[in-house]
What does this fold into?
Amino acid sequence: MQAIIFCDEPAVCLPMQDCPAALLPVGSAPLLVHLLTDLERMGFRRTVLLSGDPRVRRIPDTMHLTMPVRFARSMASLYAEEPTLLLRSLCLPVLDMGELHAVCARGAARLFHPDGTSAGAELHPAGSPLLEPEETAVVTQSQFRRAADPAAYRALVTEAVAKGSPRIGEGLRRGRDVVLDERSILGTDCALGDGAVVEDCILGDGVQVGAGAVLRGCIVCRGALIDRDARLEGGIVPEGDVLAKDARTTRPRRMLVLPEDGICGGDPRWNTAASALEAGAAMASLGGRIAVGYAGDGARPYAMAAAAGALSQGADVWQTGRCALSMLLFAAQDAGCDAVLWATGDTVVRLLPFAADGSPLSEGQAARLWQALAAHVESRILSPGTLTDSAALLRLWEDGCRRLVPAARPSVRVSCADPTLRAAAERLFSGGTGEEITLTLSEDGRSASAFSLETGMLRREMLLLPAMAALAREDGAFVLPEDAHPGAAAYAQAHGIRLLDGETAEGAALRQRQGVCTDGVRLFAAVLREMTYTGQTLRELTASLPRLCTVVREVVTPLTRQEVADLGERAAAPQVVIVKPPHSRIARLRVHADTMEAAAELCGEWERSLRAAEG
It folds into this structure.
């Protein structure tokens, strides 16, 4: 497939009105450079640039493209030698190559985004004269193969089930008294309200059927909404449409695209109660019991809106109020929750989802969450869940930590950006005498470091070693956090400490009971217990420990997850870990060393490797 790009559109910004928009800088490169790079990565065989500007013609010479690029001054000299994507604006829509070829097979078409806005692009089959097409097409990354008519579509889906595909996808949420027959086929993350009737139907991913609605012999494409008490027999609901009660036709749904990195993330435009409501509603796809908390007065309304969204989908919500993430995780585990949503920030708020044990979402969980976000779940689908004020669980956290702190302890000063956690930690560690130690807790409470004039700075990697010795003596084993320094495992082996895998049932239970992987207060309490057991000061205790240091850096990169994984595998070094979470633009680089300087140097080398891989 080839691409043809109109490049002489003038820039509209005042300082650069004599400059083509293709040359406008985006980051460190002109817009056209990003566009050509994306086209090559997608698999286009060649590209034609429509431009007479010599500055535009010099752009491909500065790039290392394997895709041929040629120039033309007008459309008159061009024709579709092969299937052709014609870009009338310098914006590449989200495209799937398989779907592009499928649309081309039916004839020329103008492309539209799912929200109805023009994509500024056209598709032309081979041999087309490149005249503006009359037909239109909405190109989305569908899970199903395209079919010419409903009968063919039903045959495709039925054939897939006969070959072993599941009849009901993951993440189904159903209310009370739902009627769902054995002939119906459902995609992932569907929701069926109380009393809904679904017979002999095919529902795509993320379809929501309201309470009391009746569907018989229907095909409902993904992301569509069947309103409460609506009825339809033998009909088709297009992708993303709404069928209202007593309506004869469907209508398009409001489309909302949420940012990739977190929910209500760094872009202030998404910091709205409506976005937070949808985020909470999507969290219900991870389980029926959700814990919600926040870390600042600015995040409070978003946490409340997210809780309302989860309630609207039938989830039971435990709301802790203002707390650190480590405290919220304790409450979630005590309440038996399936997932956690934590709001942090002041003017720009992020809603961060976690598994109940504080670990990042698995790939399957992340996929289900983003499918639910793409489905735009609303507050009227399922009957409400229950809301529990679980602030009392935070007092249980404090009581549990108090039992872990030894009576004989040094003088401890606490530093933490979260005033709630700082006040709780000051109460827990007050009353000590002797050596003065400054305990610094991260704002989310998950990490801790210690400083004294005698020992200097002890980061989390170092504190884990005496804590591991204390807890292994009490419990017979220890579970290292996933991001632990490799030197910690070597230390455990040298001292005969049994380590359990946190992925096993026994290891997961022990990790939750010990709590030091996700709670800086518990981590430091275990260090104090080891000091009491050995009768040593912190300086004496750490004198024989190996020096460990970890540096973590986040890098925005256009590389795919597979490309980042391949780069990490080529490292072949245990001290370097590089990952890119699902649906994220950010690669997280973690480097272990024995000094901060060595770790920072390695981190810099690998960041340069990332940039080199981007080309």
